[in-house]
């Protein structure tokens, strides 16, 4: 060990944070006597007087000390212990999980750069995303992508993940929706007590902080959730300090997320911000051509032009119009034409606008189909046989009713609008890959519309 230097200037802010989160007796007994003797990279080397003290600190206080170091925001993220008179470290950072890492299974393999339609509205963010996929933590870190719903944010960030997993399998990639991140934090950190709960919480924390690439979709979901923002702040800091890549999406730029802590807004704005704009007319036609190809349907150009007109800005709505027309052609066994498309969309509008469709009729249709109660549907249960119907109900309300997401969330048991948004997108995605879900949704819709 080198001669002791004066590292109090960097250790004192850390020590004050330790005072805040470590009990008074432990602080006086074990932390107060520690002496900072060296800084190596992102570590501060602390000297203790005995093996007994070192063992207690390692087994009992290490995690809180690491948190204090990160909270102090002095450019360090961990510590090492050395006993006075020895050159051997008695504590090192927790072992990374890389050896047991499995690639994420929640990625849609169809979301690739090749299947993403590039237009004037998204060419710059597409280029940035591709650059990040080729060189994680290189130029753009963090990468923050924002824009309205249905414009391709999820497609783009999953394309990044899919490319890194395929071409750099040694990197640990974590893709998670913000709602999933929130639920995991709550489940492990705030619903249990005792040593097992703490161990579970530490494992979850280490899971995220050992990522090489962390991708969080719809970060606006943590607005007004202080405890989760606190956890994410320290995870963000540690990953960036280690030179790891962070990718985030939101429906708004950081400065407009009014319920987000200022320190997070600052961190997000410190990287590269890109917005995805609505597609222009030519890009809409290109998207329709791509979707028709994926659905293995031959759609004449004049039909694509008709579908692109007055379709709004949401790409999902655009694809929905195409899907209705292809379905109508198969149902009536007719070739796809403008007349057929006009008829199919007219029927859909007529059905969606009928006065008989109300929130209660949608709820009734879903509960009848799945044989569950309204209390189950709108309650807090996380059982799969309730969660899927709940998500389908949110999806159908979005499709059949002209209600804002916040209103639907209130109807569905006081849920956040981002939960409704996640449910809608989840079912829409599942309908494309799961025939049973697609059939169930179609059957429930018919049940509702015939009432």
Structural notes for this entry:
The chain has 451 residues and is α/β, with parallel strands linked by helices. The protein is 56% helix and 10% strand. It contains 19 helices and nine strands. The chain has helices at residues 8-21, 24-31, 51-72, 123-134, 153-167, 178-190, 195-209, 226-241, 262-269, 281-294, 301-308, 315-332, 338-352, 359-370, 374-378, 384-400, 405-411, 417-433, 435-450; strands at residues 35-40, 43-48, 78-83, 89-91, 143-146, 173-177, 213-217, 245-250, 272-275. A five-stranded parallel beta sheet has the order 6-7-8-5-9, with helices on both faces. Strand 3 and strand 4 form a beta hairpin. Helix 1 packs across helix 3. The longest helix has 22 residues, at 51-72. The model is unreliable at 95-99 and 349-355 (pLDDT under 50).
Summarize the structure.
This protein is α/β, with parallel strands linked by helices and 451 residues long. The protein has helices spanning 8-21, 24-31, 51-72, 123-134, 153-167, 178-190, 195-209, 226-241, 262-269, 281-294, 301-308, 315-332, 338-352, 359-370, 374-378, 384-400, 405-411, 417-433, 435-450, and strands spanning 35-40, 43-48, 78-83, 89-91, 143-146, 173-177, 213-217, 245-250, 272-275. It is built from 19 helices and nine strands.
